[in-house]
Design a protein that fits this description.
Layout (H helix, E strand, L loop, with lengths): L3 H13 L3 E6 L4 E5 L1 H7 L10 H4 L1 H5 L2 H11 L3 E12 L2 E15 L5 E10 L1 H32 L2 H16 L5 H30 L8 E3 L1 H16 L5 E4 L5 E3 L1 H19 L6 E9 L2 E8 L31 H11 L3 E7 L3 E9 L10
Parallel strand pairs: 7-9
Antiparallel strand pairs: 1-2, 1-5, 3-4, 4-5, 6-8, 9-10, 10-12, 11-12
Length: about 375
Amino acid sequence: MPSSENIKFLIDILYHSPLATAIYVGPDIRFAFVNHEMRKVFGTQENYIGKPFGESFPILKEQEFSKILEKVWRTGITYKATNCPARILNTDLNHSRFFDFEYKALLNENNETYAILHTGIEVTERNLALQTIKTHEQNLSLNNELELITHTLAHDAKNPLSIAKIGIETIKANAQMNQIERNNWLTIIDEAILSLNQIIDKTTQISEAKTFKISKETIYMDEKIHFWIKESKLINKVDNVKVIFGELLPLYSERSGVYQIFANIIGNAIKYSSVNINPTLTIFSEKQNDEIVYTIEDNGIGIPKDEIDKIFSNLQRGSNTLDHQGNGIGLYIVKSIINQLDGRIEIASNLGEGTRVKIYFPDYKPMDKEYL
């Protein structure tokens, strides 16, 4: 047994420790020791010695700290917590603070608990600082989102606007156009305006809320891809591209985002394969595990291998594309939208031989619980 002098020495050390410290004994968790720092935490100078923890601090008992201490006493297993909120009555103010603390079970030679050493430190200021940092990060994320919104409007809105303009100019220039052809052009203009409205609607929703819940629906791709190819041919003034189709599986995704992804990828494929004498585009889809994978392959100019990883960066283009119109925003937007839709994209290319793009979409079904 330690001498009384040694015990007094240890008690003096604990009392003057900068760490808030208390010692509890007995299955009813009675105070045996409380140092000055722990009294500051509790917010009172009342003498707790010999009193049960739960009786002394009913507000902490309500928060189940008493139950934790009782379990430590029964099991002999130490309990640690970090950044733990606690409401403590302090100068008549009931408020939440945050603590890192430990309830350490002290065991005898029979592995029975004879005391619990409670040490802790208040980290409320640290918690507030972390919350401030988190808020700044959220604001930065929002700023990045707004930057993407600006790029999206400036870039992708041009496609449907260009289509509508081409359609109107064509109808104006051909006064003798038959009704069937006129109706075809009016349908193209109507689809272009619908696409533009979807882009604007999505942009408005994102800009009005930090947390934008994506609305998903079944998209029948065999109906859409043919129209998007027609759009791209009109915009790029290319009409001799041979398109080979495989199976075009439906997607369960966000309509505007899917349009923006495919309009950019198909547009690039047609634009950069048009230099070939016989430009060819292959599009098909397949199921792989829990994903639907769309492959879009062209026989165009390709991408230098050492530049493939860079083309998803904002305003980055392949060094061999400078003779073609564009500003490098398209694939940056594509990658950002695919991330929003929980998908991914892979690009493989050989310079002068063409490019293969694989787009992976989660194979969600309308009855999945997440989307009910």
